[in-house]
Amino acid sequence: MADKIAFTVNDAAVELEADSALPLLSALREDLGLKATRYGCGSEGCGACTVIVDGTARFACTLPVSDVAGRTVRTAEGLTGPDGDHPLLTAFLDHQAGQCGYCLPGILMRARALLDRGEPVDRNRVAQELDGNLCRCGAHQRILDAIMDAAREMGVAT
User: Fold this and answer.
1) Dihedral-angle region of residue 84 (phi above 0 means left; psi in -120 to 50 means alpha; beta otherwise)
2) pLDDT of residue 82
3) Euclidean distance between CA atoms 83 and 106, whole angstroms
4) Which residue of 11, 41, 110, 125 has the lowest C-beta tally within 10 Å?
5) CB 8 within 8 A of CB 14
6) Cα separation of 116 and 57, whole Å?
7) C-alpha distances out from residue 136 to 14, 46, 133, 150, Å
């Protein structure tokens, strides 16, 4: 039986009719057409599916869509907007911080959740935060460099 589930995605109100146990990842990709959030392992082991829910990085592959009812979800599509690109997106492009790019939406969302808290961060703190996100291409150094550049631009780098 389908339930009506209303929430906000990237500043837009949405309402779905879905089984309450449907993973948020499936709702985003299949019902809402937001393809940036990726399926990796399906068990919270790789971070490719990371989104932000009410300011906290969450794994969309195991999070039931019913758990985001009335909440705010951000995906990598939300890094661009009418007021310009988020500093993370600009820094990742400047540093060419990815090779295949499969992991990047999840890494970007986890980094955004960290930087948006406004707490001072250094390279070690960023690396700790990204521990649950895998990059199989080995672009870790460029990813960390890009995040630290964005942190400096946002005024939260130490």
Assistant:
1) left
2) 86
3) 22
4) 11
5) yes
6) 11
7) 34, 10, 10, 23
Residues of the chain with pLDDT under 50: none
Nearest 5°: the CA angle 34, 40, 44 is 105
Q: Which of 68, 72, 21, 25 is nearest to 48 (CA)?
A: 25
pTM: 0.95
> What pLDDT, on the 0 to 100 scale, is given for residue 44?
96
Helix, strand, coil distribution of the chain in percent, nearest 5: 40, 20, 40
- Give the 3-state secondary structure of residue 140: helix
Q: Residue 154 belongs to what H/E stretch?
A: helix 140-154
Collapsing DSSP states into helix, strand and coil, what is residue 116? helix
CA atoms within 13 A on the CB side of 124: 1
**pLDDT of the residue at 94:** 96
Please name the helix (run of DSSP H) or strand (run of DSSP E) that holds residue 110, with its range, or none: helix 104-116
Amino acid symbol at 109: M
- Residue 118's identity, in one-letter code, is G
**The pLDDT of residue 83:** 86
Q: Among 17, 131, 144, 136, which residue's Cα sits nearest to residue 69?
A: 17
